[in-house]
């Protein structure tokens, strides 16, 4: 093989099924990450009959189809791929590791046991001398299980907020410093700052990493009466809507007025 025909030097690892991520036979190519290297290898692989690029999420879907992971673990893997902060990563690792699956499986086993005890009491209580306190035990365990599930569901949207980020809307009249505050928080020029009132007419959004937690900050149009300007009026409507939907709001006012 000539030097001109060499694409790269790397490593090939073979994972025979079912002890692989997808449960199928798999091969991994470990190559250098240059864009030209990747493009040439993909082009070479594409010339092999029957070989194609995987669709988005296809490896995870095949792992699910082959019972290598359940839906909660699959969601955890997706969250881990999309994690941008340390807190998001930690939550995704726990879920991808089966923490949520184990909790749900524990609930399922308890429910099946409760159902079995009730059915046994109904069908065999007289013939088999089943203790009368079976129903009391079932009621006690069912009440405890109900409370445990309710507490899990009533978590104040912590998982959703951690996954999507805490939303913060900056509102106030024009030229009150909203865009300046956004730029200071982001430590870069996200929004245009101008002495001309009404510069910001749409929602300008950026995500910050605050102590490992995602914070979605939104700069909004200045709030004032704008009956004659349809575009600015739409911006104000969106600003009010963003403020209503936000988890937190900062209202800036000009102290000189």
Topology:
Blueprint: E1 11-15, E2 26-30, H1 35-46, H2 58-65, H3 71-82, H4 86-96, H5 99-124, H6 133-153, H7 158-164, E3 166-171, H8 178-186, E4 204-210, E5 213-219, H9 230-245, E6 248-251
Parallel strand pairs: 3-5, 3-6
Antiparallel strand pairs: 1-2, 4-5
Q: Could you explain how this protein is built, in words?
A:
The chain has 257 residues and is α/β, with parallel strands linked by helices. It contains nine helices and six strands; from the N terminus they run E-E-H-H-H-H-H-H-H-E-H-E-E-H-E. Strand 4 and strand 5 (213-219) form a beta hairpin. The chain is flat and about 85 Å long. The mean pLDDT is 87.
Order of helices and strands: EEHHHHHHHEHEEHE
Distance N to C terminus? 78 Å
Rg from alpha-carbon coordinates: 29 Å
Q: Uncertain spans, ≥5 residues at pLDDT below 50? A: none
**Proportion of beta-strand residues:** 5-15%
**Shape by Cα distribution:** flat
Q: What is the number of E strands? A: 6
User: What is the number of helices?
Assistant: 9
Structure summary:
With 257 residues, the chain is of the alpha/beta class. Helices cover 47% and strands 13% of the residues.
Descriptive key words:
257 residues; alpha/beta; four-stranded mixed sheet; 9 helices
């Amino acid at each position: 093989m000539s030097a001109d025909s060499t694409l790269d030097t790397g490593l090939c690892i073979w994972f025979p099924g079912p002890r692989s991520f997808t449960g199928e036979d798999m091969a991994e190519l470990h190559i250098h990450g240059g864009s030209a290297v990747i493009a040439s290898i993909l082009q070479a692989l594409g010339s092999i009959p029957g070989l194609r690029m995987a669709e988005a999420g296809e490896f995870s879907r095949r792992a699910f189809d082959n019972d290598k992971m359940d839906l909660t673990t699959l969601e955890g893997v997706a969250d881990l791929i999309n994690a941008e902060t340390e807190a998001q990563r930690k939550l995704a690792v726990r879920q991808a590791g089966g923490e949520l699956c184990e909790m749900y499986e524990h609930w399922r086993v308890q429910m099946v046991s409760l159902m079995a005890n009730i059915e046994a009491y109904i069908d065999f209580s007289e013939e088999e001398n089943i203790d009368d306190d079976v129903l009391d035990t079932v009621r006690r365990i069912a009440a405890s299980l109900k409370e445990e599930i309710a507490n899990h569901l009533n978590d104040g949207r912590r998982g959703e907020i951690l996954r999507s980020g805490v939303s913060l809307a900056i509102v106030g009249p024009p030229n009150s410093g909203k865009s300046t505050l956004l730029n200071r928080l982001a430590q870069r020029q996200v929004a245009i700052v101008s002495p001309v009132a009404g510069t910001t007419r749409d929602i300008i959004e950026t995500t910050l990493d605050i102590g490992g937690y995602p914070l979605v900050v939104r700069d909004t149009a200045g709030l004032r009466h704008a009956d004659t300007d349809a575009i600015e009026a739409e911006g104000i409507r969106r600003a009010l809507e963003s403020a209503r939907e936000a988890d937190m709001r900062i209202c800036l006012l000009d102290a000189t007025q």
